[in-house]
User: What shape does this take?
Amino acid sequence: MRTLRFSAACWLALAPLLAISLFPFVVMLVTALKPLSEVFIYPPRWLPQHPSFESFADMWSATKFALALRNSLEIAFESTFCTLVVAVPAAYAMARIDFRLRETYRQFLLVTQMLSPILLVLGLFRLMASIPWGDGTLVNTRLGIIVPYAGFQMAFAVWMLSSYFAAIPKEIEEAAWMDGCSRGRAIRSVFLPLALPAIAVTGIVAFVAAWNEFAVALTLLRDPERQTVTLQVVNLVAGRYTVEWNQVMAATLIATVPVAIVFTWLQRYMVRGLTFGAIQ
Amino acid sequence: MIAPSLLLAAFVMCYPFYEIVKLSMHEVSRFGMLRAFTGTANFASVLADATFQASLWRTLIWTFFVVGGTLVISIPAAVVLNLDFAGRGIARAIVMLPWSVSLSMASIVWLWSFNADYGMVNAILQSLGLISRGVPWMARPETAFPIEIAVGVIVSIPFTTTILLGGLSSIPGDIYEAARIDGAGAFQQFRALTLPLLRSFINIAVILNVIHVFNSFPIIWIMTQGGPNEGTHILITYLYDLAFRLGRPGPAAAISLIMLAIVFVFTFVYLRMQARERT
Assistant: This one.
């Protein structure tokens, strides 16, 4: 089957799809490398004639990009941490303990997974606005956004973790009990080290989701000092009369490429969690 | 051990849900102060609202075409990607690339690509001689909305293809050999073997896509904000517009509840489908 002609035919059949998949990356890169004078040339050209990193520097100074990067990192790290703190014990229970109502809990998770935060965003905003915090309310605070992120990532995380936990042989823990280990100690010194890779993968997925999130951040983070990278980039475009597209593309490139690399590496692990156990 | 997760869900889901129910049944000022209890008046006004009706209709079109278009492209793509050809790993990685870009970033890049004067889409069409002047794609709903649907399809392909690839890899290869011996052509094999065996994976991909696409906010919000002339609103963007720009939280809450009801129907269908798979 693997003749040269056969392979060429396959590539040819996929060509349109491959072109469309790569197109945004090419557009980002060529636009970001153009100086402003070349962005607004009519008719437009593909390649920059004098490629430069000017747009990156301009964007960095024109926006609060460093601050936004820091906000994004902090929010993503902290919400990932919260997600894991809640999800790891729940996933352990799902995988190991045959508790009553386990099936109900499974369905509860599925329903929360289907609830998109955007459907509840109005209520979330009112919730955060009603809780006093510091000088104001939880709106515009990191805490106010970390908690919803953790809540909406939880179902996915529990599901993904428990499917991995179930694959860790029970006998290892049981052997530790025989040796006089308490249940808690067996979890800590036998189970957790084995579960660490699964926890890491789930953590990265939660991190990427928080990094990319738009609607909740748009609603809850109104103060420019608090905004994430995603919001900053959108603000460079939204409601502006003139948009400096080379700067925008420089910013999207910075916001996208690190995540794209991690994601490409991870996606084969993700399907399990996303399809919610429907596919073994 | 599951208690913290239940508490968290109660806090970020149940309480906001309760708030939305409360809002939907009251007259609410633009700053969110509850005034008179009005029962179902918000629902009645929303249902009579022409923009709501148009958005509801457009949501159906949006969901149908994004999910349908995704499937029409993903099935053949998955079939080809499942063949054993040289460089398959690279081809798979490229097809999966758009998945790694957040919806908002993808929307921004496509918005720029469809720019009337300087966008690369017009540049390509002009160099092919298909158009003589730049087309202002995003200036009219008639062109902007189909473009948004196309972007929706592009971003949904990687996920769908992954699920279908998972299904294809579970089909044993020797049944095709048997079919070939019986004289079945490639297309016949596809229709009589691949499609039926893939059915449950297609069902799951469709229902999950329906739920995601129905709730999809960033593409339309970033590319057109529901405009021009409210001509590209779907329910979710109209809801957001009402709640946070037009200052009408009451009707927005009513739309939230209507959408939640629809999502629950989808979820129920999905649960039933899963239950059937298991038995």
User: Anything to note?
Assistant: DSSP finds twelve helices and two strands in chain B. Chain B has a mean pLDDT of 88. Chain B touches chain A through 98 residues (CB under 8 Å).
